[in-house]
Amino acid sequence: MSQFWSDLVHTLTPYVPGEQPKVDNLVKLNTNENPYPPSQKVYEAIASVNDERLRLYPDPNSDALKTTLQNHYGLKEGQVFIGNGSDEVLAHIFMALLKHDKPLLFPDITYSFYPVYCGLYGINYQTVPLTKQFEIDPADYRIENGGIIFPNPNAPTGRVLALDAIRTLLENNPNSVVVVDEAYIDFGGESAVSLVQDYPNLLVVQTYSKSRSLAGLRIGYAMGQSHLIEGLERVKNSFNSYPMDRVALAAGVAAIEDQAYFDGCCEKIIHTRENLVEFLTKNGFEVVPSAANFVFTKHKHLDAVDIAQQLRDKAIIVRHFKLPRIDQYLRISIGTDQENQALCDALSDIVNA
Ligand code: PMP
Question: ipTM more than 0.95?
Answer without folding.
Answer: yes
